[in-house]
Structure formats: structure tokens, C-alpha cells
Amino acid sequence: MKYHIENNTLLIKGNFEAISTGINGGMSKVSCIFNHSVTSDFEYKDPIEYVVNLAQLNDIKGKYFGLLTAVDMTNLCIEENENMTLFVTAGITHPSPFKLKNIGTINIIIVSKIALSKGAMASAIITATEAKSLCLLDLGFDFLGTTTDAVVVAEDKTSSKNRDTITQYTGSYTEFGSDLIK
């Protein structure tokens, strides 16, 4: 896996099996995951078309998952441990349920260095969402997320860590889940 920021876009390239709750989400093998920073007054009638155009502008070949955020990439948080690399952009100006009318999105991208079952990948979305919600409450907010939050969980197929064992569970009581919520 390699990543960099270019033109307000975090580009994560590699060989991934991934699941996404984002705009063009689902479960797929992808070669790129990106998170693009839009302006705070962003309004686009067809976000899927916008993401497709971004992929073309960034010369992304093959399948990909794309996310949008109003958070500037200078505020991107990257955390890494032995099991994963975590990329987070957190804008909280549009809390759910519909309290304000400004854009706000919390995007979480988890790139696993260990093999995950499909169920473990889906479970990691729940664990990441729980961690996000607890973080917001701990910071004194009275909401658990924003209306446009997204999570991508990707297994880096080129990582050599624990390739012989497929992790089946990623809840908060597991090593992976515990690492995720830290």
C-alpha cells in the first residue's frame, strides 16, 4: 500500500479487498481508495458522477472507492499500528439527526495489514462507528455522527502479516477491534 495527498485528495493505492459505505460503496476488489476535500459550500446534484470525474482526473485505473469531505486534507489524521493504518477526516458541522444545515462528514478508512474474513470486514464498520460515536460523546457533543459519514475497511492483499490466518472477528473485544478504538 502506498498513499499520498494530491490536489486535495488522499489517494491510497494497492491491491485491496474492501467494503465501503461511501458514495459508490459495496464490497469489491479495488486498486485505489480516495478521500477528496470539497469546499464547504459544495453542492453537486450527482455525487456519483462527481466521484467518477475525480477518479478520471486522478488517473485512477480499475475499481476504486471514493469519499468526499469538507475537511481540508491538512487536517487528515493518520494512525498506524501493527494491524492497520487508519485515515480519518472529521468534520462535525452537520450532526445527525439534522440539527444544522452545514456540511460535515466523518470519513474513516481502515487498511488492514492482516487477512480479514468478509464478516470481519463488515464488523469493523460497526466497531469503527462505535468508536467514532464514543469519541464524539467524550468530547462533549450530543450526537453520534453526521448525516454523511462513511467507513471503508480494506484488506491490503500485499501485506505479509498473518497471511496464513484469516481473522474472523473485529469487535471491540478482539485485538484488531481494540487497536481500532484506541
Automatic annotation (TrEMBL):
Keyword field contains Hydrolase: yes
InterPro entries the UniProt entry points to: AdoCbi_amidolase, CbiZ
Molecular functions per Gene Ontology: hydrolase activity
Keywords for this protein: Hydrolase
PANTHER family, sorted: ADENOSYLCOBINAMIDE AMIDOHYDROLASE
Protein name (Swiss-Prot/TrEMBL): Adenosylcobinamide hydrolase
Lineage: Archaea, Methanobacteriati, Methanobacteriota, Stenosarchaea group, Methanomicrobia
